[in-house]
Amino acid sequence: MMETQVIALVAAFNSNKELLLLKRPNNVHQGGLWSFPGGKVEGNESPLHAAMRELKEETGLFGEHWQQIGSEVHTYEDRNLQFLMFTCLCVDVSAMHCESEHAWVSPGDLRDYPMPEANSKLLPMLSKLKMDKSQHTH
Questions:
Q1: pTM above 0.90, yes or no
Q2: pLDDT by residue (tens digit) across 90-124?
Q3: What kind and span of H or E run contains 13?
Q4: Is 25 exposed, middle or buried, given 0-12, 13-18 or 19+ CB atoms closer than 10 A?
Q5: CA of 62: how far to CAs of 2, 23, 57, 75, 76, in Å?
Q6: What is the mean pLDDT of residues 45-62?
Q7: 3-class DSSP string for 66-115
């Protein structure tokens, strides 16, 4: 039985309600496809902490209004992955620095970006989200 790796993924919205996608390097698992920021939950850290850490490591961004919106298990031939999907709002994107190609995409256009099969299972969770405007009054 393969061990299951827990992966925290982040649906990071900017103030225009666009989602951040990163292009995976060609030399990694599912390389060349678009994905949400995220990565493995390490040791005894909480999935939320992993999501925050990965977002900062991969993009330099800090999110606000974090919430977990779902979880999905996906099995590839060589690995079992349990994805925990978090969402957050990145109001200030001025500090952003991505190691890879990136795009801010409106949720309706996500299908135009080829993603790993596992990610596409997570998209319906996003369509259920109604970003609550009342949180974003300045």
A1: no
A2: 999 998 998 789 999 998 898 899 998 877 778 88
A3: strand 4-13
A4: exposed
A5: 33, 19, 10, 30, 31
A6: 96
A7: EEEEEEEEEEECCEEEEEEEEEEECCCCCCCCCCCCEEEECHHHHHHCCC
Distance of CA 10 to the CA centre of its chain: 3
Q: At 118, which helix (H) or strand (E)? A: helix 117-128
Residue 126, helix vs strand vs coil: helix
Per-chain mean pLDDT for the chain: 88
pLDDT at position 120 is 76
Q: Which amino acid is at 127?
A: S
Closest CA to 59 of 13, 92, 96: 96
Residue 61 burial by Cβ neighbours in a 10 Å radius (0-12, 13-18, 19+):
buried
Q: In this structure, what are the phi and psi dihedrals at residue 39, rounded to the nearest 5 degrees?
A: 175, -170
* Residue 11, SS3 per DSSP: strand
Mean pLDDT, residues 59-75? 94
